[in-house]
Amino acid sequence: MRLRTSSKIALFIVDETVFYESDFLAYFHNLCKDKFMINMILLERITLNPKVMIGKPVIRGTRLTVEFILNLLAQGATTTEILEEYQGLTLEDIQACLLFARESLNRTEFMPLELEKV
Predict the structure, then answer these.
(1) Which of the residues 70, 95, 96, 112 could staple to 45 if both were Cys, CB 3.0 to 4.6 A apart?
(2) CA torsion, points 4, 6, 11, 17, in degrees to nearest 10?
(3) Is 54 left (phi over 0), alpha (psi -120 to 50) or beta?
């Protein structure tokens, strides 16, 4: 029995696991699908209701807005400090706020108000 080698076979190494090209593509596809599902589950933690906080996005079951949590983080508060201060909150709630902000920015187009002079 002879072993044939080909220069067209691509090998990928992920976390010390070696993948052939076709196996890696399947692994990558599942990874992306899993990340998408995780993101969708996280985003379910954020709700919008015109009767709660004037319709601003809030963490489900609270009156804490995404904006408020992002402001705490921007001011230097750590996730541990936030979780200690707001007992009902979880790390996933904070992650959901960050994900919501990212998704909101991804769907926003920015236009300059005036042209820069060169």
Answers:
(1) 96
(2) 0
(3) left
CB within 8 A of 7, min separation 6: which ones?
Answer: none
Task: Report how far residue 96's alpha carbon sits from residue 102's, in angstroms, rounded to the nearest whole number.
Answer: 10
Structural contact between residues 97 and 90, judged by C-beta atoms closer than 8 angstroms: no
Tell me if 100 sits within 8 A of 108, measured CB to CB.
no
Placement of tokens 């609270």 in the chain: 62
In a structure prediction context, what are the per-residue pLDDT tens digits for the chain, which is 118 residues long?
333 444 445 555 666 666 665 666 666 667 667 777 778 888 889 999 999 999 999 999 999 999 999 999 999 999 999 999 999 999 999 999 999 999 888 877 777 777 767 6
